Amino acid sequence: MALIDQTLLALADPTRRAILARLAQGEATVMELAAPFRMTQPAISHHLKVLEKAGLIARSREGTRRPCRLTPVGLAPLDAWLSDLRANLERSFARLDDLLAEGDPPEET
Amino acid sequence: MALIDQTLLALADPTRRAILARLAQGEATVMELAAPFRMTQPAISHHLKVLEKAGLIARSREGTRRPCRLTPVGLAPLDAWLSDLRANLERSFARLDDLLAEGDPPEET
DNA sequence: ATCTTATATAAGTTCTATTTTATGTAAAGG
DNA sequence: CCTTTACATAAAATAGAACTTATATAAGAT
Lengths: 109, 109
Prior knowledge:
Two copies of one chain form a homodimer. Chain A has 109 residues and is mostly helical. Helices cover 58% and strands 6% of the residues of chain A.
């Protein structure tokens, strides 16, 4: 699975986005992250694993606790995808402008 | 369902992202969009419906054809979510810096 | 050592998304 | 009119993601 797939699949879940939002305020343990949700701890652990595999969070060890923190670089694939898309869009607009300037109506390939 | 949910759910599928990439080059009909995929036309039609409901594409009528075009404003919810997240991150880094400057080690709430 | 706290993993279930097959509709072409 | 082309919709199958219950592990507290 491509990086961008993992990124977007991870972000597509509201619980995981809420977890990221929480982590944007600072580190938190699994239990702290689980608290706001009406959901069991294993469910949260699974969400964390998805986020970790997507490179969106990292975890350390602090005795029995496993604090999580956000790793902003994990958003890079999404940034790249977005700017790619927008670059292509602009290129296609530029082509369209050229054609219109020539008075030549654009046609499909 | 919140806007950002629809946006990210739509983007989480590789077929749909490929469709958007194709549309970044310019308008295309359903058949043209379906061609590159080993997938039936109804499947593509369904993907297009998801993209449309997310506000990522729009469709017009041209006789029997239904050309699709990208609507870049559909990415606004994602842009907003991303900058929100990053704003919070920076705020929390700022707080951390303050505390460190005071020589006061940060603690959990 | 034992108990507790914090977390992970496994198995199973339920829910939702993707895809296909089959069929319907609407416009254009003969 | 009848056929074809381009697409939509419905129903059903499949696949996959999310969640729960039950259990395991590992570190700290007693």
